[in-house]
Amino acid sequence: MTTTTPVEEDGVTRRDFLYVAAGGLSAVGAAAAIWPFIAQMNPSADVLALSTSEVDLDGIEIGSEITAVWQGKPVFVRHRTEGEIKKAEDVVIANLPDPQSDEERVIKPQWLVMVGVCTHLGCIPLKEQGDYSGWFCPCHGSHYDTSGRIRKGPAPKNLVIPPYEFLDDNNIRIG
Amino acid sequence: MSFEPKNSAVKWVEERLPIMGMLHHALYEYPTPKNLSYWWTFGSLAGVMLVVQIVSGIVLAMHYTPHVDLAFESVEHIMRDVNYGWLLRYMHANGASMFFIVVYLHMFRGLYYGSYKAPRELLWWLGLIIFVLMMATAFMGYVLPWGQMSFWGATVITNLFSAIPIVGESIVSWLWGGFSVDNPTLNRFFSLHYLLPFVIVGIVILHIWALHTSGSNNPTGVEIKDKQDSIPFHPYYTVKDLFGLAIFLIIFSAFLFYAPNYMGHPDNYIPANPLVTPAHIVPEWYFLPFYAILRAVPDKLGGVLLMFGAIAVLFALPWLDKSRIRSARFRPIFKQLFWVFGAVCVGLTYMGGQSADGNIAEIHGMVPVMIDGIAQMKDGVPLMEEGVTFAVTNVLVARILTVYYFLHLLVLLPVIGLFEKPRPLPASISEDVLSKTSPVKEADNA
Amino acid sequence: MLKLITSLSIAALVSMGIAGGAHASGGAIELKSISWHHGGMFGTYDRASAQRGVQVYREVCAGCHGLGLIAFRTLADLGFSEEEIKAIAAESDYVDGPDGEGEMFERPGKPFDVFPTPFPNENAARASNGGAFPPDLSLIVKARADGDNYLYSLLTGYTDAPADFELPDGMSYNAYFAGHKIAMPSPLSEDAVEYSDGTPATVDQMAQDVTVFLTWAAEPKMEQRKSIGLRVILFLLILAGLFYAVKKKVWSDLH
């Protein structure tokens, strides 16, 4: 830019360049300085370190469930009955608000593991209730089926399946 | 050139809340003396530090737990686990020291150039109130990490109030919320440490308001007489202050990143233990001159009174200084005494950090051997041994400095104002500036 | 005349400072000083030394001194692998629970656990150590003036007491401990540990290694701090230069 400017205006452009450079650099500095103040609210190292939980499946009777804790959230671990599994598998997927087959939601059909937080506004649904005998959220009336899929009510998504793996037949690790 | 908004939205706001006009006035219309030196930068630096402390403090409070069992650990949690927690905490801890450095320089600038004199007495008072509030805030903040110095500093300072006759003990247990410094004390200190900075912000607004009412003082101490003497604050002083800020931030960063614990005390990395007092209790450096005055007095109440008196006397300064000339540049005697006073303040700071019972200098020689206060004799001649013949004790030095501190403010200032013959003042600020920038011109005129 | 008084008083203050400094160093004990790898503006922790230091801590110090602020997971900073960290953690047991029946149970340590403290509380620690309390070492380097040199000096400072020195029973003489009477017997002896990297385990070597480890433990973010600091200061130098140029430009049209 300066090369095309006539000599007599050189003083003006040099000044403008200085102003822009100083202003721009200040803006960069301010943005960099703000980052630690924002990043400090992200999960801290000790919180991140607690991001896996192990659950012992031994002793969870067929037709019952326990609530484990993973990253501070409830995780429903349900030992489903044959009837519940069949009911979940027989649903016509195309008609669902959030289409997903039961196979996509389990590793072993008898064990349903999902985050027990309603996808509407974060309440905790009640088990074995609602129009589909699955879960029912009392806050705003969302009905989930025996696979934890949303069937009726304001919630937009199925209950979330956390990442988990079977360590052996009786132990899973969530996270 | 008053503010005439062209944008209709700005105009709409302006008719209801003339905030843009106020800013415009402060930046473009408020006449600032054209000869302010870099000593005038410390005011805005203090403002920057107040913001830094409030912002970093608020984010630290998101991770800190004000409970005796958890406070120390939560600070270490900040240092180790919170993202950039170490940066924020070191910023806050060193920021407090930086804030005091800047404010002390700002105050000494005011002392040198007589900025406290009429019509700026209230401006000076508001500044002193900010200073007192800062000390209270800093003291309570230092308690929060709940280390050994936190705990014993809190114990010693709150015990000062027990010197008050009759009600002293009741006041102390009221401050503590118990019978020693404990959880209730920590909780209330946290609450007040969070509150007071916002009170400071309020006083700062009044301080700036008062400044804009009487105008800035300047190195000549001569008031603005006409348009020639002044320039708008923006861009001249905004850019000058920005340069000063950048230099200041380099110094701040050097401490923050390379010597973050230099101004702290190692004992504060030991968790508070109510049963063990550290060998040598010292407050943070910015309290040391006052701590030296406190220890210089052998009487408990007297020491406390004199310590608070050292600050209180500053409120009377505008009336103690009898000279009508503001700037030390034109007051030959005052100028010398100012530097002595400055040295005395530095000396008090140094003495505050020394142990209470040591000697600062000793002369060694032969002294009689004493046992239980009785000189030992042998063959009718006193037994002699190598020893200290004369000692300048820390307490003695602190006493001399304390006496001089008050002597300067209460006696010397009023007296020299009466007989000191000031050097001739420049007719105006611009004349003073011209005589400096173009000495040839001045010679021509002469 | 007054100028003279000023300069005299300044000179007096300066010499007072020197005298005070001399006085302080006369009272305190002068420490051995090492040129540490982590010293200076660009210093970083010597990883190999720190890893050996972990071994010294675990095999020698951990019997009496806790490290209650240090989580095993953070050892990754010193170059330990995930498997090594899991193995170190699993060597200690932790009380957890309650389980489904409401009982507390013991489980092996996990990376998110902190180093164990050897005594349940201070009283128990004092009872087992002849009334002395072995402090937690998490912050020991920052809790002592010139902490790394102090720790190194202390660990290598055990000597026989001078003939006229009265040493109570159960105490040891240490040239660098305040008062020279220390309740901790000399913790390090030749080949107290066997280093896996083949470094000869001399007392001096072990003292240095454990000091490096504990310096890291006290200030684990030092390297990040220094590297960010360097960038911040370089940036500010450029910014200050620019502001100075702008300031000169702005003020140049004034006169």
Keywords, separated by commas or semicolons:
heterotrimer; B: 446 residues; mainly alpha; two-stranded antiparallel sheet; 61% helix; 8% strand; C: 255 residues; Cytochrome Bc1 Complex, Chain D, domain 2; two-stranded antiparallel ribbon; 44% helix; globular
Describe this structure in words.
The complex is a heterotrimer of chains A (175), B (446) and C (255). Chain A has helices at 10-39, 45-49, 82-89; strands spanning 53-56, 65-70, 73-79, 111-115, 126-129, 134-137, 142-144, 150-152, 164-168, 171-174. Chain A has 175 residues and is α+β, with helices and mostly antiparallel strands. In chain A, β7 (142-144) and β8 form a beta hairpin. Chain B has 446 residues and is mainly α. Chain B has 17 helices and eight strands. Chain B has helices at residues 8-16, 19-29, 42-61, 71-80, 85-112, 121-143, 148-159, 168-176, 183-214, 233-258, 288-296, 300-315, 317-320, 332-352, 394-419, 429-437, 439-445, and strands at 31-33, 230-232, 359-368, 370-371, 374-375, 377-378, 381-382, 384-393. The longest helix of chain B has 32 residues, at 183-214. Chain B starts with 7 loop residues before the first helix and ends with a helix. In chain B, 39% of the residues are buried. Residues 440-446 of chain B have low confidence and may be disordered. With 255 residues, chain C is mainly α. Chain C has two domains: 1-30 and 224-255; 43-223, Cytochrome c-like domain (Cytochrome Bc1 Complex, Chain D, domain 2, Orthogonal Bundle), CATH 1.10.760.10. In chain C, β3 and β4 (181-182) form a beta hairpin. Chain C starts with a helix and ends with a helix. Chains in contact: A-B, A-C, B-C.
